[in-house]
Design a protein that fits this description.
Blueprint: H1 4-13, H2 17-24, H3 28-42, H4 50-62, H5 66-74, H6 81-85, H7 101-111, H8 117-134, E1 140-143, H9 155-159, E2 164-168, H10 174-183, E3 189-197, H11 200-208, E4 214-223, H12 225-233, E5 240-244, E6 262-266, H13 276-287, E7 295-299, H14 304-311, E8 320-324, H15 333-343, E9 349-354, H16 359-368, E10 374-379, H17 388-398, E11 405-409, H18 416-425, E12 431-437, H19 446-457, E13 461-464
Parallel strand pairs: 1-2, 2-3, 3-4, 4-5, 5-6, 6-7, 7-8, 8-9, 9-10, 10-11, 11-12, 12-13
């Protein structure tokens, strides 16, 4: 007879609920091994299927301690009589993944017949208390509730091993964040949503972390000076950073992120208005040094010169660059292409903009960056037209064999001959994608589409939006 360890190994390899459920019915020994696996993997699996999820909810409610059941009864929250009289066979809660706010909302909606704010708050408090008291060593938490999770019994055991934490500051207050700072010291990933001013508890939480690697900040208009300072203090460990609404956080911390490998910036402010804080941020990009940078994504900024200066100080490990701007009068696009050609021999994916005078740098880019797989070149100047032949000639003569995904602006007029010659040069490799970025100026004719359709039929192009 197989021992428990062997059974556990075998059951963990079973990938479907039906097979596990069949094993559950064999005998008591198998049942004891399978139940934790089922609840760990499938406890919230049927959240959208009310009939099945109701069974899960009833099981959860049966695990409530007597004190919670009495408290709910005192607040006119009636539980099914079967739940009150029938004790559970297992401590099912201890097997569960910690529920996110959507799961708790669903449990509340299923359990409460006549909800109001007071009853919802009372019920959710007891549900969260149950999970905090019974689940140990949670690794991932999406914190989107005003319930004081860190004040509940068992919080230190529940959250001390957190590795990933997402905080919605519309719900979580500074006191709770300070309490979490006393419990949780080993976060590697931290996401903060709706931050607009400094919270002492958030600063304490970040300061407490020993090895914070990835930070994502979704901010609102405001001022977060202390947040900038605490990020600077974590400059040796942070290697992935995402920012939006960059004017909220003073950019002085950027120069401290010496081990950054991924940088993503999404500035979603109105680009029609000049913001001095944005200019300061761009200046800090220019003076920062991220020698280990591998991925760069910038949206909502038009700082091609500053990004070129940043790339000039990297050590050749960049594999992905994505630039997106709505500023049609941006300058120095060629400066960025030149910096990439010089410093990014490993680049695989590039999305940026071109002006006609930049084409000389495209030749250098394709010649030196022989691992390129995907290129997107859009046009900032929609009035430029008769230059497509030059660009396609460069692609024809210089493209590496790895380049199989190409997107080009429709604003560059290209002859049928140059178009055809380019695709003919691709016969030794299959273009997985060839797409046209349609702008207000569109020089793609039906004859161009006929050529694309012909090369699709010949198997040279797998997919195109130009057919």
């Amino acid at each position: 007879m197989l021992n428990t360890d062997c059974l556990l190994f075998i059951f963990k390899e079973l990938k479907d609920k039906k097979s596990l459920h069949s094993c559950l019915l064999v005998n008591k020994e198998w049942c004891k091994v399978v139940v934790p696996i089922l609840w760990k993997t499938y406890s919230w699996y049927n959240i959208e299927k009310s009939i099945f999820f109701m069974k899960t909810v009833n099981t959860i409610l049966s695990c409530l301690p007597t004190s919670s059941k009495q408290l709910l009864f005192d607040n006119n929250i009636k539980l099914p009589t079967t739940i009150l009289s029938k004790p559970p066979l297992f401590n099912y809660i201890s097997f569960c993944e910690f529920p996110n706010f959507e799961v708790v909302n669903k449990i509340t909606g299923v359990a409460l017949r006549y909800p109001n704010d007071d009853r919802i708050n009372c019920f959710e408090r007891e549900i969260y208390k149950l999970f905090v008291s019974q689940i140990m060593n949670v690794k991932v938490l999406i914190w989107q509730t005003s319930q004081p999770l860190t004040s509940f019994p068992g919080a230190s055991t529940c959250f001390s091993q957190l590795n990933s934490l997402t905080i919605n500051l519309n719900y979580v207050n500074s006191k709770s964040l300070y309490e979490m700072a006393q419990i949780c010291k080993d976060l590697e990933f931290l996401e903060v949503r709706y931050c607009s001013y400094d919270l002492p508890g958030l600063i304490s939480l970040i300061d407490a972390q020993k090895n914070l690697k990835k930070v994502q900040l979704y901010t609102r208009k405001g001022n977060c000076e202390e947040l900038s300072k605490v990020l600077a203090r974590k400059g040796n460990t942070i290697n992935i950073l995402y920012l939006n609404l960059i004017s909220t956080i003073p950019p002085s911390f950027l120069v401290s992120l010496i081990n950054l490998t991924q940088l993503s910036i999404y500035n979603d402010e109105n680009h029609k208005f000049i913001n001095p804080k944005v200019n300061v941020f761009q200046q800090h990009l220019a003076i920062s040094e991220f020698p280990k940078l591998q991925s760069l994504s910038v949206m909502g900024l038009s700082c091609f010169k500053e990004l070129a200066m940043l790339i000039d100080k990297t050590k050749g490990d960049i594999t992905r660059i994505h630039i997106d701007t709505t500023n049609r009068i941006a300058q120095n696009t060629g400066m960025l292409i030149k910096a990439i050609a010089k410093n990014c021999p490993k680049i695989e994916k590039l999305n940026t903009y071109l002006e006609p005078k930049d084409f000389i740098h495209v030749k250098s880019l394709l010649t030196k960056c022989r691992q390129l797989e995907e290129i997107t070149f859009d046009s900032l100047n929609i009035f430029v037209n008769d230059i497509g032949d030059e660009l396609f000639d460069i692609f024809t003569k210089c493209s590496p064999m790895t380049l199989i995904d190409i997107s080009i602006s429709s604003s560059w007029k290209c002859s049928i001959e140059a178009f055809d010659l380019f695709f003919d040069s691709c016969k030794e490799r299959t273009l997985l994608n060839f797409n046209i970025i349609y702008n207000s100026k569109d020089y793609i004719t039906e004859k161009h589409r006929d050529i694309v359709r012909r090369y699709i039929n010949e198997g040279v192009i797998r997919y195109s939006n130009c057919n």
